[in-house]
Amino acid sequence: MRDYYHRQLKDTAYVDTLTGIGNRRYLQEKAEGFFADNQSGVIILIDIDDFKQIHANYGHDLGDDVLKSLSKKVSEYIRQEDIFARYGGEEFIILLPKCELDISMIKAEAIRHAIESTRIMTQNGHLQVTVSMGVYDIQKEDSLDDAIKYSDIALYQAKENGKNCIDVYTKHQQL
């Protein structure tokens, strides 16, 4: 019985209660092994476009529905070995171990399109939600913080390029 409660407590510490996916702590713990083994892979940072306007126009309950819907949709596109977590607010991270950049871009585009195609019912009809994504091909010398920093730079570039798109960080970009 004690093991059961210990497991329940640990699960609670690693799960985002709203979306049911991993939280930031879960990401950090799972990524620790990935980076310790110097694995190849890709990180994708996802941000919901204009999320503050959704909250302002429709309220927090609908904002919560958007977060849950996005989590469910992304979960349909990831492998069992992928690490998917809510990073904070309306940001999510997918860490794709042993995945090539070209394959991850195909996956990211499929996720972006699936989210764009999903409609969420509101009092005034259906709401279309879009996301911007920053992608980074992780290098052996990178840490999780490095990978997040580089994918964040790509994410901001995607936002500047008009939102609802994907950008890739390459090492020749300025920090």
Q: Key features?
A:
about 50% helix, single chain, two-stranded antiparallel sheet, 6 helices, about 180 residues, five-stranded mixed sheet, alpha+beta
How would you portray this structure in words?
This protein is α+β, with helices and mostly antiparallel strands and 175 residues long. The strands form two sheets. Strands 2-3-1-6-7 form a five-stranded mixed β-sheet. The protein has one domain (2-169): 2-Layer Sandwich (Alpha-Beta Plaits). It is built from six helices and seven strands, in the order ααβααββαβββαβ. Helix 3 packs across helix 4. Helices cover 48% and strands 23% of the residues.
Overall shape: it is globular
The helicity comes to 40-55%
Task: Just give the CATH class.
Answer: Alpha Beta
What CATH calls the topology is Alpha-Beta Plaits
The biggest beta sheet is recorded as: 5 strands, mixed
Across the major sheet, the strand order is 2-3-1-6-7
Task: Report the count of strand segments.
Answer: 7
Order of helices and strands: HHEHHEEHEEEHE
Average pLDDT taken over every residue: 90
Uncertain regions: pLDDT < 50 for 5+ in a row? none
- C-alpha termini separation: 51 Å
Per CATH, the architecture is 2-Layer Sandwich
Number of helices: 6
* Computed structural class: alpha+beta
Instruction: List the domain count as a whole number.
Output: 1
Radius of gyration: 17 Å
